[in-house]
Design brief:
Layout lengths: L2 H39 L10 H35 L21 H4 L1
Helix pairs in contact: 1-2
């Protein structure tokens, strides 16, 4: 493999992992936000339905974040295939992927 191809491959691998980590961080942040919203709503001085629309919108954002994460896993899998076909065997530690989430199809109504 040429030096430039190796440099490009290492950069892409780094960026894919960064994107996956940011996706996970977004899901964690949404979960924390939802928890804080629900805790705040448990205050006896606050009506039970307060913030319901915001909770529904946050739940939709969480569904979209899961869809993004799934698609990033698919991108990672496709790039891994390209690397195997074009760059030859990886002399570094390979990125092992559990295919359980890659093949999942998210219905359009939930992903949109």
């Amino acid at each position: 493999m040429s030096n430039q191809i190796r440099i490009d491959a290492l950069n892409i691998r780094k960026l894919v992992r960064e994107a996956e980590a940011l996706s996970d961080e977004a899901m964690i942040a949404c979960a924390r936000l939802k928890q804080a919203m629900l805790v705040a709503r448990q205050n006896p001085e606050i009506p039970v339905d307060t913030g319901q629309r915001a909770i529904l919108r946050l739940s939709e954002a969480e569904r979209q974040a899961v869809a993004m994460s799934t698609n990033l896993l698919r991108v990672h899998d496709a790039l891994s295939q390209v690397a195997r076909e074009r760059a030859g065997p990886d002399t570094d530690l390979p990125t092992d992927m559990n295919p359980s989430g890659i093949g999942m199809d998210i219905p359009v109504s939930e992903a949109a």
